[in-house]
From TrEMBL, chain A:
<keyword id="KW-0813">Transport</keyword>
<dbReference type="GO" id="GO:0055085">
    <property type="term" value="P:transmembrane transport"/>
</dbReference>
<comment type="similarity">
    <text>Belongs to the ABC transporter superfamily.</text>
</comment>
<dbReference type="InterPro" id="IPR013563">
    <property type="entry name" value="Oligopep_ABC_C"/>
</dbReference>
<dbReference type="Pfam" id="PF00005">
    <property type="entry name" value="ABC_tran"/>
</dbReference>
<dbReference type="GO" id="GO:0016887">
    <property type="term" value="F:ATP hydrolysis activity"/>
</dbReference>
<dbReference type="InterPro" id="IPR003439">
    <property type="entry name" value="ABC_transporter-like_ATP-bd"/>
</dbReference>
<dbReference type="InterPro" id="IPR027417">
    <property type="entry name" value="P-loop_NTPase"/>
</dbReference>
<dbReference type="InterPro" id="IPR003593">
    <property type="entry name" value="AAA+_ATPase"/>
</dbReference>
TrEMBL record, chain B:
<dbReference type="Pfam" id="PF00005">
    <property type="entry name" value="ABC_tran"/>
</dbReference>
<keyword id="KW-0813">Transport</keyword>
<dbReference type="InterPro" id="IPR027417">
    <property type="entry name" value="P-loop_NTPase"/>
</dbReference>
<dbReference type="GO" id="GO:0005886">
    <property type="term" value="C:plasma membrane"/>
</dbReference>
<dbReference type="GO" id="GO:0016887">
    <property type="term" value="F:ATP hydrolysis activity"/>
</dbReference>
<keyword id="KW-1003">Cell membrane</keyword>
<dbReference type="GO" id="GO:0015833">
    <property type="term" value="P:peptide transport"/>
</dbReference>
<feature type="domain" description="ABC transporter">
    <location>
        <begin position="5"/>
        <end position="256"/>
    </location>
</feature>
<dbReference type="InterPro" id="IPR017871">
    <property type="entry name" value="ABC_transporter-like_CS"/>
</dbReference>
Length: 311, 352
């Protein structure tokens, strides 16, 4: 857990720059991802969590800031061979298993496309073997290779998406809400699969979700985003035990749990950005309240949070 | 408590090229006045088909009610004419759909869409309907209703759109509100607001709600009673406490165990093995037997009847038969059962 795999430094992603409709989807966020860990990213829709993931993998060009993968900047000018190398190491699993698979391609071709591009299969036979073994890795059969996406259920499609991401032997996978579109019982299957693969292949995940109970289960550390900014970043256990930022508290208080007694007594907290009453000139930035637990706050709040922190 | 809606031995089939899909295979339940009944289950278990049949929204071409009755205030809706059904929809029973994006008409203003049922069912004048619409928007918590009335759905956010859909559904103060995954497409914070709103409105206009969802957290929050559906049947039904703290059916055990709790640290989540049954050729015996680690020989031969656990709690599993062996439920369920017993003991003491 010491080696930094990915460093995101003051990353900004603005759309429609200079126009009246300018959107600051991601507005200066900084975090690191260590090798072999799972970093969860949560927040409401529109808070910029998906944009963050997409900018990291270079689906968008960053407006400002940098993303370093093993010390090398992801953005900026790159030769096509450099780009290819980078693309192989970083892969993405998308939210919608219906929209992310080409309906006119066979499963074997969907999974092998990356292998073909990166020249990972030595022969046709090798290619087929690799596809079969990937299918088996994600819990599908080799007979499925010659089928088309529409012949599969949502959970099975998501498995195909995972197999495709694994095909090029990546080190880092960005999973953008991979389970949101699935049934509860299927969610557990996919989450177990992702965890198992992480162990076997030493993968590092950036896991984007809005389901807070699932994300706590899969993540080592969790970042909470609000309006394009990171408001809290902490080890998963710690975040749930000691939520410091009022937005995190409101988010946690909103999760309904399958426990009627708890539900009857649950009080939903609301959050309004103006409740901080920051004065002009007050510097609001990420500060470390406890080891590894960062909260976006002013100097004054920092002292309060530190006092409130329960070890 | 008065029964408002009774569904009796409902069988619904779809005719497809592959053959007859028996989507609903004998569903029985009642809805009492003023209560919230949650229906849970996997996709394909028949939750939506059951409720759509109440409103008769199933495609007329290929769907067929093979048997059974749906009694609303004593009147059988399965035998009602289309014209009679039009009077029921929106007036007596109305529905909220999952996706507020597709259930609103993008080419009509919000105001027009809310006024539609008012003009149609309550024969209000345009001016009266407009005033009602403003009141309704205000009721569901949309600020500046006078201005919002003239706007189109795309000018609203997802949560606001769902509020509009709720306003339309509640326009005629229906006796039954069917909510089909109304919060699945929304964020947790917005979900919380919508659930609170629905509970609040339920008290104000005294409707009964049928709430379909697969999120057990939401069920625990809203429901008075819960029906668990599997393979086109209700396999367990009871009060919310009975289902969450004293579940009897192995499928309910599986559902409860497969959700991570916020304080669970187990390495692997429990997964219900296998896949839902193929309703083209429903299996003989208990439909859940193939995936049931507790299955017995009889499960493969004969369908279990509903066994009575308490006056309000029934479950269809042979495990409840007096001759069946005692089995150990999963740990997560056992913890819940222990809590339930402690609670019951407490309430007994309190009653003395």
């Amino acid at each position: 857990m010491t080696e930094k795999l990915l460093e995101v430094k003051n990353l900004k992603q603005h759309f429609n720059v200079g126009k009246p409709k300018e959107v600051r989807a991601v507005d200066g966020i900084t975090f690191d991802i260590y090798k072999g860990e799972t970093l969860g990213l949560v927040g409401e829709s529109g808070c910029g969590k998906s944009t963050t993931g997409r900018t990291i993998i270079r689906l968008y060009d960053a407006t400002d800031g940098e993303v370093l993968y093993k010390g090398v900047n992801v953005h900026g000018k790159k030769s096509s061979s450099e780009l290819k190398e980078f693309n192989q190491k970083m892969q993405m699993i998308f939210q919608d298993p219906y929209a992310s698979l080409n309906p006119r391609m066979k499963v074997s071709d969907i999974i092998a496309e990356g292998m073909d591009i990166h020249g990972l299969a030595k022969s046709q036979k090798d290619r087929a073997e690799k596809v079969y073994s990937l299918l088996e890795t994600v819990g599908l059969n080799r007979e499925h290779a010659n089928r088309y996406p529409h012949e599969f259920s949502g959970g099975q499609r998501q498995r195909i998406g995972i197999a495709r991401a694994l095909a090029v032997n990546p080190e880092f996978i960005i999973a953008d809400e991979p389970i949101s579109a699935l049934d509860v019982s299927i969610q557990a299957q996919v989450v177990n699969l992702l965890k198992k693969l992480q162990k076997e292949k030493q993968l590092t995940y950036l896991f984007i979700a809005h389901d807070l109970s699932m994300i706590k289960y899969i993540s080592d550390r969790i970042g909470v985003m609000y309006f394009g900014k990171l408001v809290e970043l902490a080890p998963a256990e710690d975040l749930y035990r000691n939520p410091m930022h009022p937005y995190t508290q409101s988010l946690l208080s909103a999760i309904p749990l399958p426990d009627p007694d708890y539900e009857r007594s649950r009080v939903r907290k609301t959050y309004d950005a103006s409740q901080h009453k920051y004065e002009q000139g007050e510097e609001v930035k990420m500060r470390e309240v406890a080891p590894g637990h960062f909260v976006s706050c002013s100097e004054k709040e920092f002292a309060e949070y530190k006092a409130k922190y329960i070890v | 408590m008065k029964k408002l809606l009774e569904v009796k031995d409902l069988h619904i089939s779809f005719h497809t090229f592959a053959g007859e899909v028996q989507a609903i295979r004998g569903v029985d339940f009642d809805l009492n006045e003023g209560e919230t009944l949650a229906i849970v289950g996997e996709s394909g278990s028949g939750k939506s088909v059951t409720t759509k049949s109440i409103m008769r929204l199933l495609p007329p071409g290929n769907s067929e009610i093979k048997a059974g009755n749906i009694l609303f205030n004593g009147k059988d809706l399965t035998k009602a004419s289309e014209k009679e059904m039009q009077k029921v929809r929106g007036q007596d029973i109305s529905m909220i759909f999952q996706d507020p994006m597709t259930s609103l008409n993008p080419t009509m203003t919000i105001g027009k869409q809310i006024m539609e049922p008012l003009l149609k069912h309550q024969k209000l004048s345009k001016q009266e309907a407009k005033e009602r619409a403003i009141k309704l928007l205000d009721l569901v918590g949309i600020p500046k209703p006078e201005i919002r009335l003239k706007q189109y759905p795309h000018q609203f956010s997802g949560g606001m759109r769902q509020r509009v859909v709720i306003a339309i559904a509640l326009a005629c103060a229906p006796k039954v509100l069917i909510a089909d995954e109304p919060t699945t497409a929304l964020d947790v914070t917005i979900q919380g607001q919508i659930l609170d709103l629905m509970k609040d409105l339920q008290k104000q206009i005294e409707t009964s709600i049928i709430f379909i969802t697969h999120d057990l957290g939401v069920v625990a929050n809203v429901a008075d009673r819960v029906a668990v559906m599997y393979g086109g049947k209700i396999v367990e039904i009871g009060t919310v406490d009975e289902i969450f703290y004293n579940p009897q059916h192995p499928y309910t055990w599986g559902l409860i165990s497969s959700m991570p709790s916020l304080d669970s640290t187990e390495e692997e989540l429990y997964v219900i093995p296998g896949t839902p049954p193929d309703l083209l050729n429903p299996p003989k015996g208990d439909a859940f037997a193939q995936r049931n680690p507790y299955a017995m020989m009889i499960d493969l031969e004969e369908e279990p009847p509903m066994f009575k656990v308490s006056d309000t709690h029934f479950a269809a599993t042979w495990l409840l038969h007096p001759n069946s062996p005692k089995v150990e439920p999963p740990t997560a369920v056992k913890e819940r059962m222990a809590k339930f017993q402690a609670k019951q003991a407490n309430s007994l003491k309190g009653g003395e």
